[in-house]
Amino acid sequence: MQKEHPIQQLHLRFNTDLQELARLLSQLELLFCPYVPEDIFWQCQTAIAEGFTNAVRHAHQNLPPTTPIDLEVKVLRHSVEIQLWDCGPAFDFAGKLNQIRQNPEDWTQDHGRGLCWMAELMDELRYIRVLSPQQDPHPERNCLIMRRHWRARG
């Protein structure tokens, strides 16, 4: 099977700063329109905003504001592939998500609710730890991988 080539793709680097979220969201809008159905766009935008906010507030909470957060997005004919990279410590994403799902009363708390939103909005959601390229000052990074599919129009 031949790998599908992206219709659009984007790689952006952001500082660890919630002020960067506005720039991120405006770039997404330019990238997604007119290729992604509007409801899918809003779902992806919400999931990416939550992932970025978590990287700033949690993964990078003890790191300098210049610590990079990378975003890679590929728009395909009937799907979007998103990778959000942070430089924070290892985190048991799947374990935390399962813990929240098993304790619905935690949904009333601010902690972790966004993880459930991301899981509900995306068709695939994973968080992995990887070795960085040698020239990267951070020896390991985390990657939040999200995928969202949709049916062909028509």
Strand segment count:
5
Biggest sheet, strands in spatial order? 1-2-3-5-4
Output mean pLDDT: 88
Beta-strand proportion:
25-35%
Task: List SSEs in N-to-C order.
Answer: EHHEEHHEE
Number of helices: 4
Assembly type of the chains comes to single chain
| Helix content range | 25-40%
Domain Histidine kinase/HSP90-like ATPase: 21-147
InterPro entries: HATPase_C_sf, HATPase_dom
GO molecular function, one term: ATP binding
Keywords: ATP-binding, Nucleotide-binding
Protein architecture, described:
It is a single chain. By secondary structure, the chain is of the alpha+beta class. It has one domain (8-149): Heat Shock Protein 90. It is 35% helix and 26% strand. The protein has helices spanning 20-32, 38-59, 93-102, 113-121, and strands at 8-14, 69-75, 79-86, 124-131, 140-149. A 5-stranded antiparallel sheet has the order 1-2-3-5-4. Strand 4 and strand 5 form a beta hairpin. Helix 1 (20-32) runs antiparallel to helix 2 and helix 2 (38-59) runs antiparallel to helix 4. It is globular. The protein starts with 7 loop residues before the first strand and ends in a 5-residue tail after the last strand.
Quick overview of this protein structure:
This protein is an alpha+beta fold and 154 residues long. It is 35% helix and 26% strand. Helix 1 (20-32) runs antiparallel to helix 2 and helix 2 (38-59) runs antiparallel to helix 4.
